Amino acid sequence: MCLEQTHCKILYLSTMDIKFVSELDKLLIKPKKIVIIPHRNPDGDALGSSLALKHYLEKKGHQPSVISPNGYPNFLKFLPGESEILKYSLTPRDVRNKIYNAEIIFTLDFNALTRAQDLTEIIKNSSGKKIMIDHHESPENYSDLQYSDPSMSSTCEMLYNVIKALDSNSITQKIACCLYTGIMTDTGSFKYPSTTSETHKAVANLIELGADASKIHQKIYDSSSFSRLKLLGVTLSNLVKIPKLPVVYMTLTQEELNFCNFQKGDTEGFVNYGLNLDGINFSCIMIENENDKKIKMSFRSQGKFSVNSFARIYFNGGGHHNAAGGFSLDSLENTIIKFKKALDEIKKEF
Ligand code: 5GP
Ligand code: MN
Taking the model in full, what pTM does it have? Predict the structure, then answer.
């Protein structure tokens, strides 16, 4: 670990995080049984950070397993180590035992235990030390050790700093690929305001260490199925502008999803298209899910309007200032009415 070296402190970590890294370093002195858990419906940042950490810990002689609460999109399956991810739905008994026997449980890219879905109670009841690394706002107080920083672009950028501080020469090509993927996806390809010069330095270093940036972009963004592109067409044709407000919303019914042969992950990124419109700074998508009897909602904003607060207050959710999610247990029609009512209440904020 290079914590004693002033340049490492300055380069990679703030004072609070130095404490986190030194505690973590102590915990990792001896080989341990470790589980790493991303949030449900894991995205590039959640899976990228989980797999990067797994590769790092393996290299250091530990026994880590990544456990996903549920499935994830096909476009993330190129990530090195993906095939070894355990899924609760496929091997519940094995997963339960792994979590109960773990000496350390990392929860990555989330800060509310319910985001681990069916794993929530199992994590709570395990005696393993819980370690949170996350960049969402308002962290819950469930972990024994936490590195939480909502100003960071991604959990992958935070983990990059942590690994660099633990052992500056330990980033392999696999780790670089996983971390690059998470930083790229959570920054909207380096365009969101959370992208700093430090983010670009981290990414430049990851490319030097073997991340194939061009290949990763292509795997994530240019691997749509024909039916996904058709579904995007349906979504955009359902786009509605709220009169007199800089707000748009889109909807997808279960019938439309079925018609376009919906596969998990197909709607990822659709909500962002609303912000392509000139003068729009709040976009929402509402997606019907007959199985879960829920409407899944995603919110994106530009500038000062906080979709994190909006999701928390009106739709049981949360996230970041400019990117958040939530859900409604009402019908799609009633959810649209509720959405419009909520906008009416807060219209002065725009
Ligand atoms: P997405 O719209 O892509 O599902 O999620 C956007 C952001 O909001 C992500 O950072 C995600 O972790 C967070 N998020 C999505 N859904 C929920 C939710 O139901 N509850 C909370 N607390 N956060 C959510
Ligand atoms: Mn993230």
Answer: 0.91
